[in-house]
Amino acid sequence: MHDTLKRVLRGAAAMASGTALAASAQAADATKIANPAASWDHLWHEVIVDITIIGIIFALMTAYFVWKYRRRPGNEVGTSDKLSPASAVGWVVIPVFVFLSIDFYTAANGWVLWNEYRDVPADRLEVKLESGMYSWDYTYPNGVRTQNELIVPAGKPVMLRMTSRDTLHSHYIPDFRVKEDSMPGRVTYLWFNPTKPGEHIVTCAEYCGVMHGYMAGRIIVKAPEEYAAWMKQEETRLAAATAPAEATPAAKPAAKPVKKT
Amino acid sequence: MNLKEWIFTTDHKRVGVLYLIGSIVAFAVAGIMALLMRAELSTIGPTITGNPTQYNVWLYAHGAVMILGFQIPALTGFFANYCIPLMIGAKDVAFPRVNALSVWLFYVGIILAVLTFFIPDPPDVMWTGYPPYSTMTTGNTAMYSFTVLILGFASIIGGVNFLTTVAYMRAPGLTLNKLNIFVWCTLGAFVLQLIFVPVLGTAVTLISLDKYLGTNFFDPSKGGDVLTYQNLFWFYSHPAVYVIFLPFIGVVYEIIASHAKNMVFNYKMVVYGGIGGIVLLSGEVWVHHLYVSGMADWLRIGQMVTTLMISVPVGLMMIGLIGTLHKGSIAFTTPMMYALGVVFLFLIGGLTGVPLAVPSLTLAVSDTYYVVGHFHYVMAVAGTFAIFGGIYHWFPKVTGKMYNEFWGKVGFWITFVGVNIVFWIMMDIGVKGMPRRYYDYAHFPQFEDAHQWMTLGAGILAVGFAIAILNWILGAINGKPAGDNPWGSPSLEWSTVSPPPHGNWPTPPSVSEDWHPYGFKKA
Questions:
Q1: What's the maximum distance between 2 C-alpha atoms anywhere in chain A?
Q2: In this predicted complex, what is the ipTM?
Q3: Which site among A200, B323, B384, B503 is 20 to 30 Å from A233 CA-CA?
Q4: Residues of chain A contacting residue B136, judged by C-beta atoms under 8 Å apart
């Protein structure tokens, strides 16, 4: 209850003075890394409970009326009268007030969560993603590249800066409750917080072409030391392969790797 | 009755019936597409076709034909044409020949849409036609553009016609506050069509220019922008949801008031707060279709607030509906069953839309089966139930005969069970991560059972719809005579004979001071 109240107040503050304030609030408790996926579960649950209650109220009322006012001898015609001006206005003002309260409450909570999703922690692993028909191509800051497999260390926020070399794609990670479209000509981003080692599926959520349903990949979260070992090995391999294969991304569309899993 | 008379008719009732026949055919075609998709998805891997493009064409055709070929024409073509002149006591629409032109264009559009299945490279661009795919595909994007343009044009000239008709041709004494709710709803829908269809026309024209004539509106490598199309498209296509919603909820109001024989609850609240509110808000919420498209953050937050505010007019309309049941005399006829079905389905659909209004929650569920389940509840199935209920409701007026009440209810219950199996499960696996528009879900094997249940549900609901359509055909051929006013309604369309003659009334009707379309107590 107290927690909810706090969230509402923060949401209201955010609504009153824009994202800047919420961003600084975020910065204030930067010691703890946010976990948007967990906050998502929390807010989703809350909204589902709210709409279930509203739905049950409306449904029960309808069911009661349908039963009570069914046509039977002695009830051959409806008997409601024109509302008095006062109750006609009341039946507008009160519902509008109730609906708007629910709306603004939901909006405030949604905005707080939004800020969590969009304010990327400063201490992060930043990976470039280029999507294409039909693969996810990741480039690490040191130039290491992977396809359809993003290997990340546990406990460190990961940010993807995304673009596409052909059609729209959407990098959707169901386990981290996040997706964002990638497209040619613009750079979009998302971030997630992999807290413990494990594997998570990545799947395309924006219709991108014939093999859209097969455009899948994996995010492999490794323990930090395992990740460091893997990265070291990749760096060595990259150095061995040396310069010529570097750079010139997507220069030859004909050489597109089309992967059908 | 001869065919030539029907094709060259300018009688609004015959134009309406032509719209109805065309849209039911479209419904059947698009419904078969849905069944094919469900059959394909019943197992992981190829089931009935090994070609993903085949599946994508079904998916395209299902969406485009259901919306542009079935729901909009059935609601703003059939119901508006048939009912509006009768409800306002006019002998026809203001421009009968323009009306005939609109139904011809509609048939051209339907034929184009059906040709999808006979040309070598059918469009596979989804009903949204997003670039860059729509400008890169070998599928026939021009066909998509022309289908949309023709149906859109038919709808614009229909809009001009009906706004004029209601403005100038009401019976003497029929003031604006005595219009049927359905008339108000349809006016709202046509205002939206007139404002927003041109934007859609622009969007799909630019797509074809880009693809075939080498312009670069949407190609970033040559100075264009991908997102522009999505903005143009949804700037129309969100209001289009209300172009469907308003008339169908209007139909439900007519059914509930007539079969509960009751005054509409708080008429002015419904008209000015509900319909007016929706018309005003409808153009300010399109970004909620673009929550994960890479729009500016401030737009996503701003339109979260406007999108949530849609609950206000929609909530008022729900209160109006449920309030009309209060102190009514509710008869459980087939139209009433469908109308109550709409209330139930729309409650689920409307409320499951609340989380989708919040961009942060949408980051997880956007483009999943949750969205598909939601919009089928709120608009596809609720709208179709309203259309089916409306056809049953005005069936005695259109044909002069009565449908079979028993089979009507059987059809309703079968469909009702079927849709809840399909779309409830759909929302459930959507939240768990099942993305939409997948020909195959090999990397989500955990959803195979759910998909099989949905396929079963789709089979069930198809049986229910088939029973309803058969019921109309048999009823129209050899139903019992229904009489002029089987529901005992004071609304003007029931005051003439069934079916109404050309010109509707022998002498033009006028209404008295104390008449009201929902004044059942005095009737």
A1: 93
A2: 0.93
A3: A200
A4: 166-167
Output the CATH code of domain B10-495.
Answer: 1.20.210.10
Contact in structure between B299 and B291 (CB atoms under 8 Å)? no
Distance, in angstroms, between B156 CA and closest chain A CA? 30
Chain A residue at shortest CA distance from B52 = A210
Nearest to B443 among A54, A58, A216 (CB): A216
B212-230 per-residue burial string, b: 16 or more CB within 10 A, e: under 16: eeebebbbbeeebbbbebb
pLDDT tens readout for residues B489-504: 999 999 999 999 999 9
Q: Is A90 on the interface with B (CB under 8 A)?
A: no
Dump pLDDT digits (tens) for B370-424.
Answer: 999 999 999 999 999 999 999 999 999 999 999 999 999 999 999 999 999 999 9
Using CA atoms, how far apart are residues B395 and B405, in angstroms rounded to an integer? 12
pLDDT in tens, B347-365: 999 999 999 999 999 999 9
- What is the domain partition of chain A in residue ranges? 2-70+86-118, 125-242
Q: Which residue ranges make up each domain of chain B?
A: 10-495
Q: Could you identify the residue written with the tokens 């059914």?
A: B255
Cβ(B338)–Cβ(B392) under 8 Å? yes
Does B273 contact A92 at a Cβ distance shorter than 8 Å?
A: yes
Checking if the pLDDT of B441 tops 50, the result is yes
Query: Which tokens is A20 given?
Result: 């800047």
Burial class (CB in 10 A: 0-12, 13-18, 19+), B1: exposed
